[in-house]
């Protein structure tokens, strides 16, 4: 059986688990290609106009896989942390995709709760049955996949740059190089190193969150706020770049909360959608880098990071 996995949304966070699980079940795993112009155009064509860019891109990946697999994984991710939620678009993703794209293959859409091993195993039992009737095989595949995910080190932590920024945003904006137009590479070429939230301990994130009037309801909001505020406060970075999807309600709230907290600390928001031009991004990050350089030299505001 060929199992299709679209390279969109939280694929960037959970691909070791998904790929290992279905491979261990004996399936032939087909992952869509990296996001490109063709995938984007397909997404724009099939998704509803109001959808944000990452959702449109997921649609594009689903169309690209439509004729290449017997069954497709459309993850209905409900919760990745207890008592927190993620964007409602994740919960309704299977309905959005299957109602917008005709002739889709069978799909795996069981709700996913990743905050305990037991809850995730529930998903594995149900999803695995669509590939094999062998319960022992499903359990074995789950354990292998779980271990693979635990051993996966995501995140970017550049060393040896004179200037460093905290790169904040959803994983699908940070790690999809088509969406962000190779932002990390561009920054590195300008002499700017990058740090992402994976290297900030959960406890530090929680400490920053505790200072808020109200705890954010959304997991990504909590993580992005906690990381950005902590990195600026500890002066591990010289500035913050938030890469945000146009139309994302969660981003619009969290960007304002971060700005309010960090005050005059350098902060750049890069909004992306299907119309974003590369020249505009280049100009903005060059100007931001110039400003950081001037700030370090002229204002004696030298950070304490290595
Ligand atoms: S969190 Fe924002 S960017 Fe992500 S799927 Fe929801 S609306 Fe889109």
From TrEMBL:
InterPro entries: CoA_activase_DUF2229, Dehydratase_Activator_Redct. Residues 2-198 form the DUF2229 domain. It comes from the Bacteria. This is 2-hydroxyglutaryl-CoA dehydratase.
């Amino acid at each position: 059986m060929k199992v299709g996995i679209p390279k969109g949304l939280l694929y960037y966070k959970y691909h070791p688990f998904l790929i290992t699980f279905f491979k261990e079940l004996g399936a032939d795993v087909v992952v869509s290609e990296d996001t490109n112009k063709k995938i984007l155009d397909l997404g724009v064509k099939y998704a509803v106009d109001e959808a944000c860019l990452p959702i449109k891109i997921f649609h594009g990946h689903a169309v690209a896989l439509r004729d290449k697999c017997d069954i497709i994984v459309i993850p209905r991710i409900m919760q990745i942390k207890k008592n927190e939620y993620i964007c409602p678009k994740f919960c309704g993703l299977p309905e959005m995709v299957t109602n917008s794209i005709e002739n889709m293959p069978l799909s795996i859409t069981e709700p996913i709760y990743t905050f305990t091993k037991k809850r995730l195993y529930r998903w594995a039992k149900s999803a695995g049955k669509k590939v094999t009737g062998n319960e022992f095989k499903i359990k074995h595949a789950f354990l292998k996949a779980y271990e693979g995910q635990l051993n996966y080190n995501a995140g970017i932590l550049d060393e040896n740059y004179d200037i460093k920024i905290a790169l904040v945003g959803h994983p699908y904006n940070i790690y999809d190089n088509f969406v962000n137009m190779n932002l990390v590479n561009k920054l590195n070429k300008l002499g700017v190193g990058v740090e992402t939230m994976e290297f900030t301990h959960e406890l530090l994130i929680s400490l920053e969150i505790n200072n808020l009037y109200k705890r954010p309801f959304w997991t990504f909001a909590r993580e992005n706020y906690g990381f950005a505020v902590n990195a600026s406060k500890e002066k591990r970075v010289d500035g913050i770049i938030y890469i945000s999807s146009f139309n994302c309600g969660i981003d619009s709230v969290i960007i304002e909360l971060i700005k309010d907290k960090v005050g005059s600390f350098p902060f750049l928001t890069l909004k992306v959608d299907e119309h974003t031009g590369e020249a505009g991004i280049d100009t903005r990050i060059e100007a931001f880098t110039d400003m950081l350089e001037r700030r370090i030299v002229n204002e004696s505001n030298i950070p304490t990071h290595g």
